[in-house]
Amino acid sequence: MPALSPRILAVVAAAAALASACAATAHAETVPNEVVVAYAGAHPHVVHTTRVAATIAKLRARPDVRYAVRNVVAHAAGAYVPDDPGRGSTPGRWSAVQWNFAGPAGVNAPDAWGHLIADGHPGGQGVKIAVLDTGVAYRRFGKTPASPDLASTKVVGGYDFVGHDPYANDRNGHGTHVASTIAEATNNDVGLTGLAYGASIMPVKVLDDTGEGDASVIADGVRFAVKHGAKVINLSLEFGSDISWRQIPQLIDAISEARSQGAVVVAASGNEADTAVAYPARNSNVLSVGSTTEHGCLSDFSNQGTGLDLVAPGGGQDAPLDDAGCDHSGPAGRNIAQMTLVGVHKTRIGIPRGYQGTSMAVPHVSATAALVIASGILGPDPSPDAVERRLEATARDLGPPGYDTRYGYGLVNAGAATDPTVPVA
Question: Does the annotation count 174 as an active-site position?
Answer without folding.
Answer: yes
